[in-house]
Design goal:
Elements: H1 2-13, E1 24-31, E2 34-38, E3 48-51, E4 57-64, E5 69-73, E6 85-91, H2 129-150
Antiparallel strand pairs: 1-2, 1-6, 2-5, 3-4, 3-6, 4-5
Length: 151
């Protein structure tokens, strides 16, 4: 009985290592900054993908079809060739906000493209959705109190 309990304990505490599957596909066509690729049908709309080309180019999944996806390129389309491998990063674009962005021109991924160098201040991005909700609640309470005072 003791051995059986020991085996059950070992089984219940066993943690199988999680393997991360990377969705990858192959470029079927490139035309006017739009790439058609197969193998990424299980990706999400709007996810960032990386083309294994020279130089490496990023793109955003624009449409999902049953046999292929269409990707909007975020770089030069002459670097991507038919047959190149496309990797799904499983990331979505994030909005960059903060004082360092004021007056700057940035691309869809928050990289400066105005020739003025890197962003001088780190972007202000809330750490969690809960933190954002808490701030919104505090702001709403303050606005309500101010409105009550003014009335």
């Amino acid at each position: 009985m003791e051995k059986l309990e020991h085996i059950n304990d070992l089984i219940s505490t066993y943690e199988k290592p999680v393997e991360r599957l990377i969705l990858c596909g192959r470029v079927l066509s490139v035309q006017d900054g739009i790439v058609v690729a197969d193998g990424l049908q299980d990706s999400g709309l709007g996810q960032i993908v990386e083309f294994r080309s020279e130089p490496v180019v990023l793109g955003i999944i624009a449409t999902l079809e049953t046999e292929f996806v269409r990707i909007t390129l975020l770089g030069p389309d002459n670097a991507v060739k038919v047959g190149d491998i496309v990797l799904n990063t499983e990331l979505y674009p994030e909005v960059v906000v903060g004082f360092g962005v004021l007056g700057r021109v940035i691309d869809a991924l928050g990289r400066p493209i105005d020739g003025l160098g890197e962003l001088t201040e780190p972007p202000l991005v809330p750490n969690t959705e809960t933190e954002t909700q808490e701030k919104n609640v505090k702001i709403s309470e303050t606005e309500t109190q101010e409105k009550n005072v003014n009335i």
